[in-house]
Amino acid sequence: MDKVKATIASTPNEIQGTEADRRSFLKTTLAAGSATAGLSSSTFLARSAHAAGSDIIKVGLVGCGGRGSGAAKDAMTADPGCRLTAIADVFYERMNDGKKNLSKTLGDQYAVTDDQSFSGWECLNQILATDIDVVLLATPPGFRPAQMEAAVKAGKHVFCEKPVAVDPVGVRRVMAASEMAKERGLSVVSGLCWRYDLGVKATMEQIFSGAIGEIVTIQENYLTGTLWSRVPKPEWTPMHNQVLNWLYYRWLSGDHIVEQFIHSLDKAMWLHNDVPPVKCYGTGGRQVRTEEKFGDIYDHFAVVYEWEDGTRCFAQTRQMSECFSETEDFVFGTKGTAKILANSIKGETNWRYEGNKPSMYELEHVALMNSIRRGEALNNGDYMSKSTLMAIMGREAAYSGQVITWKDMMESDMKLGPDDIAWGEAPEVAVPMPGRYRFVEE
Known about the structure:
Number of domains: 2
Order of helices and strands: HHEHEHEHEHEHEHEHHHHEEEEEEEHHEH
Radius of gyration: 21 Å
Oligomer: single chain
CATH architecture of the largest domain: 3-Layer(aba) Sandwich
Shape: globular
């Protein structure tokens, strides 16, 4: 499974202007917002030599789609001492397009040569054999556990996009790799970007300090539109089609409750101090996206998660066009209500975050590069694994129509996708039907 393919999500850019302007803005606003973020100003953009004894941090990118290219740009913005020195994608065309695009946008920080450019199913192993210090993993989630494990074994610091897996076996593999990274002093930073957003962090701090009293209920809404799909070409094999349209195949994406809604579920986990729910139940299905081209995933989910302390999270996600849209985290407490993305609280305490809002995508990489320069490993492995498993848990509850427990997930041998991947045939597509589908049979 050491395979690679590009992710195609876009990265909003919240800081405009020249690269110098952006770095200056980051440094200034992060220092000003350090009290809110819980970090000292000296944490950001440190200029001491990194652990390898050089002022240059060499970065490799795996997955040259929109999200991967965005991550490379964010890493370069985060630290002027970074250089993109290697690039890889399973598709030669995407790798080559990535090189053309990044060579124009990164300027002097682009240092990729032809012999540091890799494509094909072995490209991950090839890029890890180079002298990069950091690898950015921005490929479909189904490939991520093997890639994360290989990167840590190769002694590389890791930026790992969300989610980290599509099944319980994969999550436990990432958990083990994260522990290995701790033992080796390697940083692992997650693409669960809201954990790095200054406004969200400030709102969480208000909640944790008692601004809304005791948490009673959480409502997570991620009601959004549809995403892209690619029309198959005559020369594509079934595997080409599934990999290039990876969003619609659960062995590659985990379904959208895992691939996209994880951002919201991660905040519910965060609100519980990263203690997972004990069980969940829910519903879901394919009401609009029913065509064969949409693979085997659902277009809507509604899941109720329950914690040991009695609190619940009512979680809804939908990908449909021409419908009401809303993405927000509502936290209901005994003394008030918080909207996390709106950075606001109403109740006995009325509060709104008014501080700086640099790009959370860049802050992830600021934290990563700073940890390398300081020689103080940063490891997001625990929460990125738990939040992924929470999302998978909800998916399986909706698919099966049964109550699924955290214990079920931690003990499950479910593994989606083939062990060996090659162009040609692809996994069979079958849409899960509640009442017929059985979680234990996977």
